[in-house]
C-alpha cells in the first residue's frame, strides 16, 4: 500500500493544516515527516538545526520520508525542504503528490517570524522566503501530480479542492481508453 496523497510545498503553504483536513475528509490517517523526525530525534526541528545543522536534519528527513512512504496509507505531509533530496524525488515518482502553492506575501504572512521555522528566522524573512520560493518552485512542480493555489482559499476549501481533484484523477484512471 502507499499514501493516498503526499503533500509538498513551502513553509506556510498549509501542508500540516490542510493535510490533516484532507485526511479527515478521506477518513484516513495523517502523518507529517517533520513530526516523525522530531519523534526519532527526541527534540524539535529548530533544535536539530541549531545543535546539528541543516545537513544533519536533511539526512534524518530523507530517512523518515522513505520510511513513511513505505508504511503510511493515509495522507502524508513532507517537510517543506524534503524535495531537495534527489533520493526523495525519485521515491515520489508514481505517488499522487499535491503541491500547495502560496505567493510570497501570503507565505510570509502565514509564517511570520516564528522561530519554529529555522530557515526563515533570519534578519529578512521576506527576502529569504522569496529566495526559497524562486529556488524551489521548479522542484515542487517537477514532483507534483496536482498543484493547488492556496492564496485566497481557507484550509477547508483547499482540502475540499484537493479531495475533488484526486477523485477526478481516480475517475480518469478508471475510465476505459477511448476507441479508435
Ligand atoms: N489556506 C490557508 N489560508 C490561511 N491560512 C492558512 C492556510 N493554510 C495554512 N494556513 C495557516 O498558515 C500557518 C502555517 O500552516 P502550516 O503549519 O499548515 O504550514 P506548513 O506548510 O505545514 O509549514 P511547514 O513547512 O513549516 O511545516 C498556520 O497558522 C495555518 O493555520
Ligand atoms: O522548507 C524547509 O526547508 C523546512 C520546512 C519545515 O517543514 C521543516 O522541515 C524545516 O523547518 C525546514
Ligand atoms: Mg508543517
TrEMBL record:
The keyword Glycosyltransferase does not apply. Binds 1 Mg(2+) ion per subunit. Substrate binds at residues 34, 58, 80, 136. The keyword Repeat does not apply. Its EC number is 2.7.1.71. It catalyses: shikimate + ATP = 3-phosphoshikimate + ADP + H(+). Its cofactor is Mg(2+). GO terms for biological process: amino acid biosynthetic process; aromatic amino acid family biosynthetic process; chorismate biosynthetic process. Its main location: cytoplasm. InterPro entries: P-loop_NTPase, Shikimate/glucono_kinase, Shikimate_kinase/TSH1, Shikimate_kinase_CS. It is an enzyme of class 2 (transferase). Mg(2+) binds at residue 16. One of its GO terms (cellular component) is cytosol. It is found in: Cytoplasm. Pfam families: SKI. One of its GO terms (molecular function) is shikimate kinase activity. HAMAP family: Shikimate_kinase (MF_00109). Monomer. Catalyzes the specific phosphorylation of the 3-hydroxyl group of shikimic acid using ATP as a cosubstrate. Belongs to the shikimate kinase family. This is Shikimate kinase. The gene is aroK.
Amino acid at each position: 500500500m502507499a499514501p493516498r496523497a503526499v503533500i509538498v510545498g513551502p513553509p506556510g503553504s498549509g501542508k500540516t493544516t490542510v493535510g490533516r483536513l484532507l485526511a479527515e475528509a478521506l477518513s484516513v490517517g495523517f502523518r507529517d515527516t517533520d513530526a516523525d523526525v522530531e519523534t526519532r530525534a527526541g527534540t524539535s526541528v529548530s533544535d536539530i538545526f541549531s545543535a546539528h545543522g541543516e545537513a544533519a536534519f536533511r539526512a534524518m528527513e530523507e530517512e523518515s520520508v522513505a520510511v513513511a512512504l513505505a508504511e503510511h496509507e493515509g495522507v502524508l505531509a513532507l517537510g517543506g525542504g524534503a524535495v531537495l533530496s534527489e533520493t526523495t524525488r525519485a521515491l515520489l515518482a508514481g505517488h499522487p503528490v499535491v503541491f500547495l502553492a502560496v505567493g510570497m506575501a501570503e507565505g510570509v504572512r502565514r509564517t511570520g517570524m516564528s522561530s519554529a521555522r529555522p530557515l526563515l528566522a533570519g534578519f529578512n524573512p521576506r527576502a529569504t522566503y522569496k529566495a526559497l520560493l524562486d529556488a524551489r518552485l521548479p522542484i515542487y512542480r517537477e514532483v507534483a501530480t496536482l498543484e493547488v493555489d492556496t492564496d485566497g482559499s481557507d484550509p477547508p476549501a483547499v482540502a475540499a479542492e484537493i479531495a475533488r481533484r484526486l477523485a477526478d484523477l481516480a475517475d480518469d484512471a478508471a475510465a476505459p481508453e477511448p476507441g479508435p
